[in-house]
Design goal:
The protein is mostly helical. A hairpin with a 7-residue loop joins strand 2 and strand 3. The longest helix is centred in the last third of the chain and has 28 residues. It is globular, with a radius of gyration of 17 Å. The termini are far apart.
């Protein structure tokens, strides 16, 4: 789904998810890369690799945190916000179809369960790799 939505605005699925995550986590000063990676269940290095192309296209701003210079903060540009606004009605319609009768609480529970399963699979994969 992310791939298809991203394609509507000229992005890859991963780039689309990154833009949506930054929008969801939006803060006045920006969102740390680590928080975006955690929300998307992606490695920080993968998220970092997606940032430069989005910056070059004028969709993301990257700044250094004033509190901790090791932390990179992400924020959407005006152009990215316009892009999201342009496709907002389509997205809402698609989300309604995908959610069906699930209420927010159930979506959250399902997400938590999938995330827990992913963590268990990562541990199991690591254990198998050690056996080799």
């Amino acid at each position: 789904m992310a791939e298809l939505l991203g394609r509507r605005v000229g992005l890859t699925g991963s780039q689309w998810l990154l833009i949506k995550a930054v929008d969801f986590l939006a803060d006045r000063d920006g969102v740390p890369v680590g928080e975006v990676a955690a929300l998307l269940n992606m490695k920080g290095s993968f998220v970092s690799a997606q940032i430069r192309p989005l910056e070059q296209r004028g969709l993301l701003n990257r700044t250094q945190s004033a509190e901790d210079r090791r932390v990179i903060l992400l924020s959407l540009t005006g152009s990215a916000k316009q892009t999201l606004t342009r496709v907002e009605d389509e997205i809402c319609s698609i989300e309604e179809i995908a959610r069906g009768t699930l209420v927010d609480r159930h979506v959250g529970e399902l997400s938590d369960s999938v995330n827990a399963m992913r963590r268990r699979m990562d541990r199991a994969t690591a254990r198998v790799a050690r056996l080799e």
